Amino acid sequence: MQPEFPFLTTRKVYSVSELVASVSELLTAHFGAIFLEGEITNLRQPSSGHLYFTLKDTEAQLKGVVFRRQLNLFDFTPEDGMQVLCRGRLAVYEARGDLQVIVDYMEPSGRGAARIALEKLKKKLAAEGLFDEARKKPLPALPRVIGVVTSPTGAAIRDILKVIRKRNRKVTVRIYPARVQGELAADEIAEGIAYFNRHKFADVLIVGRGGGSAEDLDAFNTEKVVRAIAASEIPVISAVGHEIDITLSDLAADRRAPTPTAAAEIVILESEQWFRRIEDDRKRLVNDFRLILQRKRLTLQGLESQLTDPRHRLSLLRFRLDDVATRLSSATSLIVQNRRFALMDYHRRLLPHNPARSVENLKSTLKSHHARLQEKIRRLVDAKRNSLTHAASLLDSYNPRNVLQRGYSITLKERDQIVIKDAEAVPVGETVKVILARGALGCEVKRHSS
User: Fold this and answer.
1) What integer is the mean pLDDT of 191-202?
2) Residues whose CB is less than 8 angstroms from the CB of residue 251 and which lie 6 or more positions away in sequence, other chains included
3) pLDDT at residue 271 in the model
4) How far is the CA of 365 from the CAs of 26, 153, 360, 369, 379, in angstroms?
5) Are domains 16-115 and 143-273 of this chain identical in fold?
6) What is the pLDDT of residue 205?
């Protein structure tokens, strides 16, 4: 039996997953790391944190993915409609067989990059306080000289001059010609602002241009122009573009005008507006003076009602002074008398406690104690003397020599001088020493007797 598909016997048959995997490997091996530029669309970020999107140009589109760990390394946030430059590798998503690019690096390109750079610059200058309302200067009420930094041939200067001529022809306008777009525009605008400040040639500055595309306004979004406006000692009005365009110069200026025409209208009020303002101020001053005069008149009337004849008041004060003097004299006499009585009472109570009397009593007591002490000492000495005499007599009676005087003697061993108390302690024939009241005898023991 012949096979239904004879070519299958000579060719390899792939499964779908094997074919998709092979295609993915071939793409990776052939292209490796690629760089791709296009516009982001269909951007979404599910709970996994990965970023899914479509990268397209005018003729084709390709699905893309940025995994969460790589997305955390980006210094900007991708958005729909943003033109970007990507680096990654081609792969096939096996579950659906879709060709996609796995992106590991992405950066804005074209106007997208410029917009992100502008946001970074805006944050930097804001952090330095260049946009703070507290540092903005008030505009002069009646400027005599207005400085304008703009293109001398553009519509902006014509609109400014038209408004100023209409409202106040006596105001002087000084123009510093500067490019308002292109590579040299930022340098010339910044130099124009510095020029007016160096020479003090204006009371207020208008810096701006007419409307245009976002690229046309780039000079007014540069750091150089913003710092020149912030450093200006002369108040600056920024008048850039139309009402929908807000540049960094608008944020740094002391006042923002949506158009050059509006800037001129802010600086120069119409004559009728000035006359109305002066009339309003005059009426307000008149009313204020009337109120002040009325208050002063009422105050004066109140003071007049309180005034009396000074002689009558002087008499009252004199009577009051006499009364006070009388009461003071009486009070003084009474105080002195009370103090005298109190002093006498203190004297009477202190008299028994007179120190002199106490000293005399102490002296008498001390004298009596001294006499008794001397008597006791004398008696004690006599008693000790008698006791000593008796002890000496008793001691004398016990003196061995006095005993010998009465005929007694003391017998000692000749050899060791021990007093003999027992006759048996001395053998016959031994020599003994007999001590008498006067002198001593050497004797030999002949016999013992009881």
Assistant:
1) 94
2) 122, 126, 130, 131, 226
3) 47
4) 138, 132, 9, 6, 21
5) no
6) 94
| Whole-number pLDDT of residue 8 | 52
Q: Give pLDDT tens digits for 99-116.
A: 888 899 888 876 556 677
Residue 243 binned pLDDT confidence (cut-offs 50, 70, 90): low
Give 419's DSSP letter: B
257: its two tokens: 């005008």
CA distance 221 to 301: 67
> Residue 3, Cβ neighbours under 10 Å: how many?
8
Which residues, in sequence order, are bridge partners of residue 239?
Answer: 208
Pairing of strands 145-150, 33-44: unpaired
pTM of the model: 0.45
Could you tell me the CA-to-CA distances from 299 to 305, 308, 354 in Å, in that order?
A: 10, 17, 74
Q: How far is CA 56 from the centre of its chain?
A: 54
**Residue 236 host element (H or E):** strand 236-240
Spatial strand order in the sheet of 255-256: 172-177, 145-150, 204-209, 236-240, 255-256
Q: Which CATH superfamily is domain 16-115 in?
A: Nucleic acid-binding proteins (2.40.50.140)
Task: Quote the CA–CA distance of 445 and 429 in Å, as a whole number.
Answer: 5
Residue with tokens 């540049």: 247
- Sorted by sequence, the CB contacts under 8 Å of residue 180 that are 6+ apart come out as 150, 151, 154, 156, 189, 208, 209, 216, 219, 220
User: Regarding beta strands 61-66 and 440-444, do their DSSP bridges make them parallel or antiparallel, or are they unpaired?
Assistant: unpaired
Kindly state the tokens that stand for 36: 């791709």
Q: Which CATH superfamily is domain 143-273 in?
A: Lumazine/riboflavin synthase (3.40.50.960)
**Residue range 124-149, pLDDT digits in tens:** 888 999 889 999 999 888 888 999 99
Query: Residue ranges per domain, the chain?
Result: 16-115, 143-273, 404-444
Contact predicate 227/197, CB 8 Å: no
**Could you give the CA distance from residue 266 to residue 262 in angstroms, rounded to a whole number?**
6
Chain CA centroid to CA 299, Å: 52
Dist CA 314 CA 334 (whole Å): 30
Q: Residue 1's pLDDT is what?
A: 47
Report d(CA 112, CA 121) in Å as an integer.
14
Helix (H, G, I), strand (E, B) or coil at 259: coil
CA 191 to chain centroid, in Å, comes to 42
On the 0-12 / 13-18 / 19+ scale of CB atoms within 10 A, 220 is buried
State whether the Cα torsion 155-160-161-166 is positive or negative. positive
Distance CA 392, CA 387 (A): 9
| Segment holding 433, helix H or strand E | strand 431-435
Structure token digits, residue 339: 């103090």
